[in-house]
Every structure is written in C-alpha cells, then in structure tokens.
Amino acid sequence: MYRSGFLMVFSAAILAASSLAFAAGAEISVSGQGEAAVVPDIAKIHFSITARADKSEEAARESARLHAEVVSALNAAGFSEKEIFTTLFRVEPEYQYSEQTRQRERKGYSSRQMLWVKTEDFSKIGNIIDAILTSGAAEINDIQYSSSRIDFMRKRALSDAIRRVREDAETLAREAGGSLGELIEISTPCQDGPGIIEAVRFGGAQVQAQQVPEEIIVRVSVSCRWRFVK
Predict the structure, then answer these.
(1) What is the pLDDT of residues 124-161, one digit of tens each?
(2) Could you give phi then psi for residue 120, rounded to 5 degrees?
(3) Cα(101)–Cα(94) distance, integer angstroms
C-alpha cells in the first residue's frame, strides 16, 4: 500500500547579463520535495541496562548478570540470543560534588548497555516490552517503526520529485521565452533512516495498539539546474 504526493518549494532563477538580454550562461534552478507513504512492517525495541558498583569490575559483573536476566526473559518470550543485539557497552566512573572539599569526588562506577530486539510481528511487541520490564533489569528507550520497502518507496518519491521539478523548469523556461537546455546538476541530500517513526518510553502491552503508526512517510528533496536556451 502506498500513496505518493509532492510538496513544491521552488526557487527559480534565470540569470541575465542585463535587463535587456540573457547571458550565454543563463540557468534555471528548481528545487522541490516528493513524498511517498508505506505501511510499517518492522519494529525495533531499543532498551538499556544500567548497573552501579564501587569498583569498575563489580559494575561490569553486575551488568553481565542483568543482561543474562533480560536475555532469559526474552528467550522465554520466544526470542533467541541471535535476535538480541548490543550496540553499546560502557563502564565509566561516576562523580558527585562534595560541599566539604568543594571538588568532584568519585563515588563509584556505572556500566551501561544499549540493546535492541527486532520483530516483524507487531502482536509480539507487548510481550517483548513486558519481558524486558518484568525482568527488573532494563528500561525501554524507544520503539522505531520502519518498512522493508523503505528503499523502494524512496526511489518512487525521487522519481516523482524529479518529474515535477522538470515540469516546473520547463514552464519557467517557456514563460521566459526560451526552452530548457542540458541538465547541469542534480542532487538530493543524504538522509539517515528515512521514514522512521519513534515512540518513546512506553511500558506495557496495553498501549501497544495505539502506538503503531498506520503509515510511514518517506520524504526526499531534489535540486536541479539546467541551461536556459533563448
């Protein structure tokens, strides 16, 4: 399922040598945005584990113990260890300000892990969240919804944007008494994780249904420059 649309925010410039004659190097520049919508079919549940202790090795051991508890709870919910991914593991000192010494003093160490679980079955999201939270070891950070068709829909949005940008450029050239020449430049900015929607910090299966977005909007921007032929 998809729908496509186009949002035009264009700036057109026909560069002239004077108010009476067009320069040989005159150009037409048009920028625009295209969009396409797709139903999400992937959910990533991001969560974190934090442990504190007086010594760094104790904090690391406690973090490992808590990690094992979470993995065990997720295993019971039907997920294998291969489906549980760790993106960060860090142990660092913690400090607090002392009124007596008027300096920061080390009060111990903390260990933090960032993990995520992916599922394509949205009916399992509530079970995943409950397994993580009831283990008592972790906190849900956010849920990211995406689609296996994101790349395809981004290309569709690009095609639509380019077609519409060219149509506007041709109109500008025609109304200016000329025509569109060769394409000089075309560009689109890089985008990280297009169309991802996040639902932050929710903690129970009972709110699962109202958190899942009906669709993901993939938006792209395109800028083009053509030679203006008089």
Answers:
(1) 888 899 899 888 777 888 888 989 998 999 999 999 99
(2) -105, 0
(3) 17
